[in-house]
Amino acid sequence: xxxxxxxxxxxxxxxxxxxxxxxxxxxxxxxxxxxxxxxxxxxxxxxxxxxxxxxxxxxxxxxxxxxxxxxxxxxxxxxxxxxxxxxxxxxxxxxxxxxxxxxxxxxxxxxxxxxxxxxxxxxxxxxxxxxxxxxxxxxxxxxxxxxxxxxxxxxxxxxxxxxxxxxxxxxxxxxxxxxxxxxxxxxxxxx
Length: 191
Hints:
Elements: H1 6-16, H2 19-39, H3 44-61, H4 74-94, H5 97-103, H6 113-133, H7 139-149, H8 154-161, H9 165-190
Protein name: Probable ECF sigma factor
GO molecular function, one term: DNA binding
InterPro entries: RNA_pol_sigma-70-like (IPR039425), RNA_pol_sigma-70_dom (IPR014284), RNA_pol_sigma70_r2 (IPR007627), RNA_pol_sigma_r2 (IPR013325)
């Protein structure tokens, strides 16, 4: 799939309602929207409905949306739509107090959506970077880094993989450099 910068992708969606561009938008931003909604305290069985509602609102609003990086980050706009969707659902159902008790809806949402947005973006972009680089690594590099991410000690990794500890350090440094570069690339393209 051809990579577009976020602004180019947004422009294509706005001007043509191109289905391929919309599918690419969903592929890139859907996992992020999901974690934002999850962090708003939504019950697990309702998260998917809120994700779909958020995507529908994005689809409706994107043709009129004018992205200006000086006014804020695009992910904040997505986060605000997700928060609006959840708040709207809560308001609608809070009118019926009986239903509120049955659904156990959260009565309030975290006030700082930007802080949640930033935290979840870092997790999202790190996972995406790892998915992008891991297949290009040597097996030892990948296994070392995965073990380190799980909290395994150098001694355990060295014994299990039959490699010296300094090789683990070298692999770790190389993978960290690749991760850093990939995270920077992703931040430029979709961040």
